[in-house]
Amino acid sequence: MTHLKKVVIVGAGDLGINVLKNFIQNYEKEFFVEGLLDDDISKKHTSYYGKPILGTLSELNVLLSEVTIDFIVLAISNIQPNKKQSILKVCADQQVKVKTIPGIKEWIKESNSYKALEDVTPQDLLGRNSVNLLTKELTEQIEGKTVLVTGAGGSIGSEICRQVLLLRPQKLILVGHGENSIHQLLMELNNPIIVPVIADIQDKDELERVFKTYQPAIVYHAAAHKHVPLMEGSLSSAFKNNFLGTKNVADICEESDVEACVMISTDKAVKPANNMGRTKRLAEMYMQYMAKKSACNFSVVRFGNVLGSRGSVVPIFTKQLKEGMPITLTHRDMTRYFMTIPEAASLVLKAGSLAKTGEIYVLDMGEPIKILDLAQNLIRLSGHSLEDVPIIETGIRPGEKLTEELLSEGEIQEKNIVDKIHVGKAIEFDEERLLLLAHIGKKLSESELFHWINELTKISRKKTEVVQS
Questions:
Q1: What is the C-alpha separation between 287 and 290, in angstroms, rounded?
Q2: In CATH, what is the architecture of 5-120?
Q3: Pfam family of this protein, just one (predicted)?
Q4: Among 41, 418, 439, 444, which residue has the fewest nearby CB atoms (within 10 Å)?
Q5: Which residues are catalytic?
């Protein structure tokens, strides 16, 4: 029996018993189930299919100290987040792998496949409940209307599309520059109300044609150049896509009598120290400028880091682990705010449903998390020790900060206006100079463009006379 992998199942309810039964029937030559843990006192000293109840969940730490276990299976429906976090921490400290089950209810009803088990990710260690912002008011805003999403093929844009479909729109327009990502999303969603459109937000004539053809009522603007190191060497591209592209979207929304337009921004737009953040801050300013003069409800949503999105650290760390490589991070003291992709998308939808216009919305994401902690937790949960996997510091990349802020001092309200959402106050900026930059920006040299953008995005800057550089 020594060659079999030893397993403990946490949870002796219907789900746990189904998992146990499946192990015994289908995988007895691969795994040996030591027993189960459950907090139901009435199950003490009982057994299921010959496997004993070994104790309560609080005894997991003692059990793992006394018995060599290869991994545990977390099989409790609707487990409380704090209890789940406690179990994951114990297993991480003991360097025991954890498997959980996606789609618990569906798994019970439709499948007994052990293959449905998947590795727990650091998303489970965020230390807070997932925030669900979908409401009846939001359904009423979207139901029966045409919705357009720019950047629909990206991580956030595609999740916005998935959630919009749940709210029964009349038509959903997927706008993207990359045909492969739009095609993949189209195949995934497979819904007759979806219309794919390959278009570049920098092409105003093409955008006007799209808006004229489909006449959207709600627009979610997710298209942007987002990678900080790449944009450090591509200021002109960042400016044209992130700012001028946003200006095109906003201008056409006003011209087309769109009800609401929500732009996705970033915490890097707060006291921006890189080209991506600076150009996104310009875009925020233009949205706030438009909000003053338009009947369209313009608003901005700022994200921290989104777990699982393209280029985020967790998929990079996971790939490095699977390939037996060292984990690389830029600095051991770097921290970031983290949210999940569904949370990010629901915040965007919620912002579009709120009555105020010109606001900046930020999800309450709790405390920032050290990137080093994420890396170490992922190593432990993969069954390795910290001694097995080296962590190498590569140095902060151009434009990166050690810490990020979601709102600057001047934007912070005394209290949350909306539950779980911080609403930032608009900061005054030089509107005339912003509009002039939009007009002449393409003609400026890189150094002149940087000077203009840097001056405009300094929070402490006061309104000045417009002087063309």
A1: 5
A2: 3-Layer(aba) Sandwich (3.40)
A3: Polysacc_synt_2
A4: 41
A5: 268
